Amino acid sequence: MLRGNKRFSIIHNSSSHLELKDIYVDVDVDGNEKFKGILIDISQNGIGFRIDNISENSAEMLKRSGKLYVTIHYMESMILTGVKLIWGLFKTVGGITVLTGGFDIHTISTDDNIRLSELIEEIRKSTAP
Description:
Distance between the termini: 29 Å
Structural class: alpha+beta
CATH superfamily: predicted glycosyltransferase like domains
Helix content: 10-25%
């Protein structure tokens, strides 16, 4: 599947004023369980993420879930999206499971879409050479 929009990587380095504590995602699985994850990359229609230290049972529940909601937190703003898990790589090392994956954004309000555009522009500016 080809990506429709350019993705912007979240680079957490000394030249960027965006830090891990400033930009992250909460993944809500069917209203039953919530996970905090790291935002890896983002576009108008997709989110790359990583969730550290997720149990294998929780990882399977996330994989099978029909309804997923992701709240993107950055600075003082939040963006709520309805998403579908497009791909996920579950890796267990030493009993700790890490999930790296990608969500397709399928539901987003007009206001949140505007905030998403603003976030992407902020990321583009902060990671420019």
